[in-house]
Design a protein that fits this description.
Blueprint (H helix, E strand, L loop, with lengths): L1 H24 L3 H4 L7 E2 H16 L9 H12 L9 H12 L10 H4 L9 H9 L3 H5 L9 H12 L6 E2 L1 H11 L3
Antiparallel strand pairs: 1-2
Helix pairs in contact: 3-9, 4-7
Organism: Cyclobacterium jeungdonense
Keywords: Signal
Protein name: EF-hand domain-containing protein
Amino acid sequence: MKRYNIKKQFGFIILMMFSTSLFAQNLNFSDFDKDDDGWIEKEEFRTVFTANYWDDWNNVDNSYLDDEDFYTFNYALIDTDDDDLLTEEEWTYGYDYYYGDYLKDGYDSFEAYDVDGDGYIEYTEYYDGLYDTDYYVTWDIDKDTYLSQEELAENVFENWDLNDTGLMSRSEFYNFDGFYKDI
C-alpha cells in the first residue's frame, strides 16, 4: 500500500510540474492584470513577462541578453513557418511591426537583405543587415550593451501599447498574445 501512495504522489508531482509549464505558455489577460482593473499596467506586464518569457529570449542562459540573443529570438519570432528562412511575407511582417523604423530608406526592401538572391533571407543575412542599425541599441535603455529583463519587458510592452497610454488594453493584449502564442 505504501508503494502505491509513493507512486501516486510522484505521478501527481510530475503532473503538477507539467501543468505549470503548460500554464506558463498559455497565460491570459487576467494573469497579467494582477489588480483586476481591466488594464495591464507596465509594472504588471514586466513582472509576468520576465517570469515567463525571459528564458525564451535568453539563449545563453545568463542574467542579460546580448545582441546575438536579441537577433536570434527576433528572427525565430518572425519565422512563422519555422523553416529557418524568412519569406518576403515574414520579412514584411517583421518590418511592419518591429524593425522597419530602423532601416535606412532605399535599403529597406526584402531584396536588399536577400543578398544571395535565393528568395529567402537566411539568419546571417538578417543579422548582417540589422546589426549596424539602431534596432538593438534603442532597446538597451541604460546603454550598457546588454538588455536586462526589465529593459526587454519594457520594450515589448511599449511595442504592444499601440496607443502609447502606458496601459495595455484587452485588445492590445490580444494582439500581443496572438503574436507570442508560440513562445
